Amino acid sequence: MINHILLVAAREFRQIAMTRSFWLTLLILPVALAIGPLTQRFMSKDDPDRVMLIDRTGGSTAQAIEARFDLERQRSILTDLSRYVQRYHLDAAAPQALWSQHDRWYSDADVARFVADGGVAAAQAKLTVAAPEDTPAFKPDKPDYAFVAPPPAVAQSSDATVDAALQPLLHPTAKDAKPLDYAVLIPADFGSSPLVRLWANGNAGPRFVGTLQPVLTQQLRGRYLQANGLSPAAAQTASDIAPALSISTPPPGGGARERVLIRSILPLVACYMLMMSLMLSGSWMLQGTVEERSNKLLETVLACVSPEELMYGKLVGTVGIGLSMIAVWMLCGIGAAYATQGAIADMIRPALEPLNSVGTIATMIYFFVAGYVAIAMIFLTIGAMSDSMRDAQGYLTPVLMAILIPITILIQGILSGGGGIGIEVLTWIPIYTPFAVLARLGSGLPAWEVVATGVLLAAFIAVELVLLGRLFRASLLAAGQRPNVKTMLNRMRA
Amino acid sequence: MVNVLELAGVTKKFGDLAAVDDLSFAVREGEVFGFLGGNGAGKTTSIRMVLDILRPTAGTISVLGRAPGRENSRDIGFLPEERGLYRQMKVIDTITYFGRLKGMSASAARSHGRELLARFGLADNEKTAVDKLSKGMAQKVQLATALVNRPRLLILDEPFSGLDPVNQGLLEHEITRAAHDGATVIFSTHVMQHAERLCDRLLLIAKGAKRFEGSQDEARATLPARLSVVARSSPAALPGVAGATAVDAPVDGWQQWDVALDPGVDPGAVLERCTISGVALRRFEPRRATLHDVFIHLVGTDADAGSVAA
């Protein structure tokens, strides 16, 4: 029996592996990994947005705006630096430094302290000493904005003519000229009038406006207070008043949130891969059985192997195809992680950390294979009931919808950090169990729940093999008969 | 002689319909056995039960001395009525695959597969994908998959249907060859000519039930003998004659008669009585019954038993 199963499996495997669609599918991920960094490079904007501030109040407002944008940039650098230190375990370089305090919001005062302590250059100096040799150096992102001084034509223009003076800068005719992205005019009467003019070369970005607006508000309030009798210093102090938020977050899962997220990537990817490989290989599974039926091959085959051997052989062959596909993808991922540098490699390396745990590996493999078998069995039975691919699609589409829609919702729910009753319920419905367990594995699933759902899933597969096995066997030679639900139930009972 | 196949009281029901009804027969080792019946007579269902593709509702089956099962497949070659092959597979891989399913080693299956392809004139096509073959070529490949394991029992279900005359000749040759090499051949057909040319013994079924089992001579003996007679007067009144029908118009007083004899009457006895009675004869020709006549006689009309072809 085993010999027959393996022969059928090998033929099934070879037949699928010889199709063009298999190789195209197999190459999807490696190609994505290869072109990902390139795409990232092409998609990201190399040059910072060019911003021109035309301050007709004496220059203090423009200085305040530039200072705010610089502060936001330093906050972003500090946050990135903290993630870098956490990722490469470099806290020991300066345990008291702000960048060794992870997963927290850095206040304006924190950022000012970071700058006062020497900013990124001082941090890099300390980290270089403490970091192992193969640790990539921290590179701060390029600034998002660059401030350019107004040319004389703009500076000397009146409020009425400034628009005409700015147009050649916003839309230059020379091909090699860099256009201005934003121009901000702060009129001389700013304070008595709240009007500030903003020109944007396209849509004004919410981040730019969001940073600009509070500075202008602050300046406006200061001028208002001075106009109402407060000294400039008092007015400045009053306008600077802001709540000092002290933010506390519990350490998620006993560790840093980002770390947990990255460690969740592999199980989540496994969940996605299971879904993707089933969607992609589902039609291959159908094709094999449908071909045997439509080509009138079944009688010849069934004279040599039993329906059970045929079914198990097909199951083993298609599961083999699915696992081979995943194995190739995993190897490409590992290869990309260790052969490349950059954001993708930085993300993949820590994401592969769960592979250091035998328990996690075993759990992932079990739920992956069990999930594949549970759903592949449904596809095989659909194939056995169908005389043509068109027939099969009639069954397949609703089945796929019933499987994929809850799984997509489940994954989105888990990604957004939700842990509601819906996710818990889906975890205990065997057909969704593999996806739910894999997706939840990284964010902490109690061991008892993993074991219990695993046992339930095994029992479900056993029942499925018996019932769908009967349906498969009874449907094989029933060509030309599209069974209704009653017929299917009768065949399962037979 | 050893029985290679035995069915005893086999019945197969699909719901209320008995596709095979209390069927019993035996096939002896080394013979070519014809399984005759009209469409829907139960031939394919019986063969499927022999191959364990279907299980009987009642009765017992013995194949090569064993119960039906896949363990017999190493000794059985089977050509189904509805034929097909894996379209993307290469010819030699297809034959090897079925050889291996029948318990052969890959090298033995490949080697014998090549021999068969050479014999069928397909040696140059062994690496061709099946979907690139003509229909006739694909039929030969299918035959090769049935013969690859040098079967002791070759079961052919309507093997001549859909074959062109050249391939029909090839198949007849292969059946004769297999029998000559010691294999037992069972083939179902509703074309009586093939059965007449090939069968040692035959089974006639209709509506799933046996109507006759025996040799061709025994089959013909079930029909009353017929004569073609040209005489001056009617032989209808002669003892032993069941009836005489005039054929065409008389020529110069001589009339041709189609004469039916009573069951068991020897044509020689009728000739003797003609002489004694003074019936002038120009021709006295006993007519040998065809299997088609036997089939119609034993099974009935198309409406009763499905269609048959002479």
TrEMBL record, chain B:
It comes from the Bacteria. Pfam families: ABC_tran, DrrA1-3_C. Residues 5-232 form the ABC transporter domain. GO terms for molecular function: ATP binding; ATP hydrolysis activity. Keywords: ATP-binding, Nodulation, Nucleotide-binding, Transport. InterPro entries: AAA+_ATPase, ABC_transporter-like_ATP-bd, ABC_transporter-like_CS, ABC_transporter_ATP-binding, DrrA1/2-like_C, P-loop_NTPase. Belongs to the ABC transporter superfamily. This is ATP-binding cassette domain-containing protein.
